[in-house]
Amino acid sequence: MRILLSSTFCFVGLAIGYATVAHGQMEEIAHTVTYIEVAPSTANQTAALLKEYVETSRGIEGNMHFQAFQRIGQPNHFSILETWRDAQTRDAHANSTHAERFRTSIDSILYSPIDAREHGDLTTATSAEVGPNGVFAVTHVDVTPNNTDLAVELLGTLAAESRRDNGNGRFDVLVQSNRRNHMTVVEAWEDAAAQEAHYGANHTRLFRASLFPLSGALYDERLYHALD
């Protein structure tokens, strides 16, 4: 444990830098991470509805990124990642006729209510396309409130290291707007091999070991393919 903590605090200086930059951005860029679970027999129908929803949403003023995903191994699970110029444009889209029409179209086939979570930046960077074989990971990180600052430092360091991994196209950390101790990690990899190699990297293993005693819930990682 002493070795683990010592290694963790060696990264604090770098991580604080990322947290400081992100704090200045948080009042501007706005994100939403949405989870959708439907009846298995309606997975193809839902995928088609999501593709149409994404295409329309990308054309709305203020949108910076809008992408939908289907979960690997559980094709009736979907996720949507949105990035908007600010909270006002994000909220306007969420309350639009277009968004309400989409929600109504899948209401009867949902297994549970749509789970849409508003986020701000914690540490984000320029992303790159990963191609048709890309693997995306969306991970909900929950730590106990008293461990929030240390978790932020660990996640900032993980992001900085992981962006240098072979095959990485995106590695961002978002923070949930109404729960500062809840974060979402968004990753994009060129293929499954690159994503698996990242898991075995020393910096990833150190992060997971360091985060474990801080956790308030299971490390909820979900792997996806993009729908477009």
Write up what this structure looks like:
- This protein has helices at 2-10, 12-25, 43-58, 87-94, 97-107, 148-162, 192-200, 202-211, and strands spanning 30-37, 63-71, 77-84, 115-123, 135-142, 168-176, 182-189, 220-226.
- With 228 residues, the protein is of the alpha+beta class.
- Strands 1-3-2-8-5-7-6-4 form an eight-stranded antiparallel barrel, surrounded by five helices.
- Strand 2 and strand 3 (77-84) form a beta hairpin.
- Helix 3 (43-58) packs antiparallel against helix 5 and helix 6 runs antiparallel to helix 8.
- Residues 1-26 have low confidence and may be disordered.
Question: How is this structure best summarized?
Answer:
With 228 residues, this protein is an alpha+beta fold.
Spell out the key features of this protein.
228 residues; alpha+beta; Alpha-Beta Plaits; 8-stranded antiparallel β-barrel; 8 helices; 40% helix
Q: Looking at CATH, which topology would you report?
A: Alpha-Beta Plaits
Computed over alpha carbons, the radius of gyration is 18 Å
Counted beta strands: 8
CATH architecture: 2-Layer Sandwich
Annotate the secondary structure layout.
Layout: H1 2-10, H2 12-25, E1 30-37, H3 43-58, E2 63-71, E3 77-84, H4 87-94, H5 97-107, E4 115-123, E5 135-142, H6 148-162, E6 168-176, E7 182-189, H7 192-200, H8 202-211, E8 220-226
Antiparallel strand pairs: 1-3, 1-4, 2-3, 2-8, 4-6, 5-7, 5-8, 6-7
Helix pairs in contact: 1-8, 2-6, 3-5, 6-8
